[in-house]
Amino acid sequence: MKQTVQVLGMTCQNCRRGVEEKMASIEGLSNVKVSLEKAEASFTSPTHVSVDLIANTLGAKYTVNPIAKAVRANSPSKWKQLRPLFLIFSYVIIGSLMLTKGDSISLFMTNFMGLFYLVFGFFKFLDYKGFPASFMQYDPIAKQIKIYGWLYPFIETVLGIMFLYQIELAIALCVTVVILGATTVGVAQQLFQKSKIQCACLGTALNLPMTEATLIENSIMLLMAFSMLSGMI
User: Fold this and answer.
1) CA torsion sign, 41 to 42 to 46 to 48?
2) What is the maximum alpha-carbon separation in the chain?
3) Does 3.40.50.10240 match the CATH number of domain 2-74?
4) Domain boundary assignment for the chain
């Protein structure tokens, strides 16, 4: 008989291959095919195979659900999954307002960009080993230069400090335009292709889907950067 199950937690092709190999090792399973985009695994077996057996074989990193359950659970989950992103974004805005104390819009934008980088960089360090593989799925620079994905959380942290302490703002703004400009192009391409991949903006510790929200947050940062750069000219 043929079965299909949902497998959550895969972030790259290496994960997909690992899941495929582990499932193929289960006695009686054959024709194992795993899709990263659909987060599904299909296989054939003489008898019904429980999701618990598959889950125990794959380990704690992955969550295995029956497809019927997965379909019901997925319909309202998009915005629930994005809730951490909106909460963090709100806290960054509130923190920026508190630091600025109404002095100027320019200072608010500087504080916002600084807190944004520090907070988002922090979340990337929570699963530092898993971040590069997820990031390179859509960032064009990370696809070409693998070490860039490993350096990116450090780059964000340094930029956050530069903005908050107003150190070489022109350089920080130019770097922001380059790195977020590249990421925004990659995100737009994935959304246009309707790819179902994990967003790495908050690292991989939080399972966020790639949605328009990622494009909006990057666009806000780019608009601020361009606005501040134009004021320096």
Assistant:
1) positive
2) 71
3) no
4) 2-74, 77-232
